[in-house]
Each structure stands twice: as C-alpha cells, then as structure tokens.
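Project standup — Tuesday

K.O.: blocked on the structure for the chain from last sprint. Re-posting the sequence here as requested.
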Amino acid sequence: MNPNDKTQLFESTPIPKAIATLAIPTVMSSLVMVLYNLADTFFVGMLNDPIENAAVTLAAPVLLAFNAVNNLFGVGSSSMMSRALGRKDYDTVYKSSAFGFYCSILCGMLFSVFYFLLRVPLLTVLGADAQTAASTTGYLTWTTGLGAVPAILNVVMAYLVRSEGASLHASIGTMSGCLLNIILDPIFILPWGFHMGAAGAGLATCISNCVACLYFFVLLWVRRGNTFVRIHPKHFTFQGDIVKGVCGVGIPASIQNLLNVTGMTVLNNFTAPFGANAVAAMGISYKIYMVPMYVAMGLSQGLMPLVSYNYASRNYRRMKHGITFTAKISVSSLVVVTACYFLFSPQLITLFMSNPEVVSYGSSFLRAMCLALPFFATDFLAVGVFQACGLGRNSLIFAILRKVVLEIPALYMLNRLFPLYGLAWAQFCAEVILAIAAVVTLSRLFRRLEDGLHHTA
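H.V.: unblocked you, prediction finished:
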C-alpha cells in the first residue's frame, strides 16, 4: 500500500473539496441515522398508543449510553489513528484500531450481562411505571440484552474506517443498517405484520446493526493489505502509549455521553408525572430536534480526521481553514432550520402522532428546543476539534459545563418556575453560554498554535 495515496486528501486537496469528501458522506449517514431513530417513533406512533411511544422514549437513555462506549473507543481510537498518520507512525495506527475493535466488543458484552442482571432497578431509574414497564422491557431486551455488541461495534468500526479518510465506506456501512431498520420497522411493529409494538422496533434495530457489522467485516476482508484498519488479534495490545492515547481522548468523550444520558434521564423523570402523553410528546420533539443535531455532528465528525492529521503534521493554517469553513456552513444551515421548526412545529409533531394533547405539548417543546440549534453547532464543532487534537481535558470541561453546571440545574429551576414547559428551555440556556465559551477557547487555541509555530521557526 502506498501511504501517500491515503494522505493526499489530508495534505493537498483544496479545503472545500476535502471537507466535502469527508463530511458529505458522514452527513448523509447522519441523516439516515436520524431517519432510523425517527422510524421507531414514527411506526410505533402509528399504533396511536402513547404507552408504546413512551416506552421508546424511556429506553432512549440506555441507547445513548452506548454512545459512551462508541466515543471511548470510536472517537479515541480514530483520533489516535489520524494523528499517528500525520506523524507517519503506522505501527501505532494498526495497534490503535485493534485496541478499539476488541475493547468495544468486550464492553458490548458487559452491557448485555448487566441489563439482564439489573433489569428491574434499571426500569425504575428510567422512569418506567406499571403502565410502561412491559413495553419498555420488550424494546430494551432486543436493543440492549441481545443487541448491545452489534450496536456498539458497527459505530466504532465506522469511526475506524473514517479515520483514514474512507468516509464514504464508513457511511455506507452505517446507512446499510439504518435503511434495513426502516424497512423492517413496519413489518415487526404494525398490526398487518407481527404487531410487536415497541418490542418489534427493538428487534428491527438489533437485526439492522448485525447487518451493518457484516458490511464492515466484508469491507476489511476485501481491502486487506490496502487499509490501515487492522483487527487481527496480533495487533491487539495494552501497550501503555496506545491505552493512554486512546483513553486520553475517549474517556472525556465517553463521560460527555454519560452526562447526556444523565440529562435525558432527569428530563424523562421530570416529564413522567405529567402522564404518557407528555412523555411521548417530549420524545417526539427531541427526536425531531435531533435531525439537524445529527447534521452538525456529521460535519464535525467528517472534519475530525483532517484536523487530527494537520494538527499532528503542524500544518495549522490548513487546520484552521478547515474549521472556519465548516463553522460557516454548519451555523448558517441551522439558523434556517431553526426558523422552519419554529414556524411549523405543530405540523411536524402531527407527522408522528395525531393525538391533540401530544401535538399541543410537542409543538411547545419543539419551539423552545430549536432555538438552541445554531449555538449547539458552534459548541459541538469546538468539542470535535478538541477531540481531534487529543485535547481530552478541554472536551471534558465542556461536557461538565453543559450538563452538570448548566443544563441539569436549569431543568430543576425552570421546571419549578414553569412546570413541564420550562423543561424544554434548559438546553437553550446551556448552549448559548457554551457557544460563547467555544468561540473564546478556539480563538485562544489558534493563537497558541500560531505562536508556537513562529517560535519554532
């Protein structure tokens, strides 16, 4: 394999073309993932049963917890791989990919074991009651009890493949599972199929994740000898610099997602006393809100290999150009989306459930949530840059600021001031402050890197 063929995209391709090559497949993959996430809500909503829809919402924090492992070994390993590519240290690239692969399998197995051992207390923590417990269990048994390993592994493998610039292949793998899930959902959920309700949504998700994993295994076999991603056991090691490099970025990213799970659990527990309609409305609103969130995340994830590579090779001018170009696209796009969401929120909620009370709750929630989107784009881009540069401490500080210092206290205070309706404003309050902090922190990072380059020269 000629390494130059792999690195030309990072070193010399014009920034707009490089960003398009890396980010467009990732954004497309993210949009398909959004459809995949919305599919469960949409098809379960067609049953017009708030209890079944509430079950999918209540189970969401557990699926978000998978992202903690995805980020630990996906973000951590891919950042390590791209920075090692920038240094031309190919042995570290191989070992980092194997480390992320095998550790993600182990963690998925642990998720499954803990679910079956702690299922009853878990349902209580999630906010499930006598009405929603059975449906929530049905959904979680397939997605977590039996499906944790493929759910985690397919995402981590996408990160590993994307780290060497193969963004299109990473996205095809992810999208193959997502599209299959959308096809299977109505078959397993609706009365004309197997009529399994929320449990059917979980089964469809489990099968689709297995198919996505199969795609990546086939891809790596076909491209053996022509890829930096190595999953042969001989490359797996607990070598100190590998563990430290992966975990230095991955653990803060993982903690960030665990805090997201905590925030969603708190939100669900505050919403639950207002009834299944309120929980269903909050879940639908949040998933609609996640559509542009995933676009912003896709842009950030697509940018990360370019930032990692040029940070390691000390081409800071190219790195900064890539970040600012992506920021302009992301923020301007989300401003437009925010305006559309605010104007058409009732119509968007009605797409998922026609229950008048759910539509009333949901449109109010969505209007409050959507105002945070442009600020979220800035904040998430900054966190992606920190992860790409191996600055795990910075991303951890932002995660703690978002949830522990800002959002969770805001949930408590706003719910007291404006019961139920105040909950949807908590994220907006947090993201405005974090966006300001992101701009200041990135500006300081650019100045520090440029000053260091001048002193070296």
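K.O.: great, moving the ticket to review. Residues 50-86 form the longest helix (37 residues). The two ends are 33 Å apart (CA to CA).
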